[in-house]
Design goal:
two-stranded antiparallel sheet, flat, 72% helix, 2 strands, 2 helices, mainly alpha
Length: 111
Amino acid sequence: MQHEASGTGEPSGSAPSDVQAARRAIRRRLIQAVALLVLVVILVAFVIENSTRVKISFVFFTREVRPIWLMLTCAALGALVGFLLGRPGRQLRGREDGDAKERGRRRDANG
């Protein structure tokens, strides 16, 4: 026989687990908020430290730029190159799947 929780009409076994789940969710959100705050503080410090202009020698010219812009540009270019290099593999796999389907059709047609 199950005992009911006081006034809720639910078995007493489910109420504590619901409360524990809610506490875990709140704790998880708090940890995420603190982690986000720490990352924002680090990012702001990083931008401030890298806001002074420095002379950068490119292949054919020299310019004064802020290092943060140089790092962000390199990260964006790296992401673009990675994306473009990753695409042929997906296309090749798709073509191989199509070739396998075509071979299956030929085999079925030939009997």
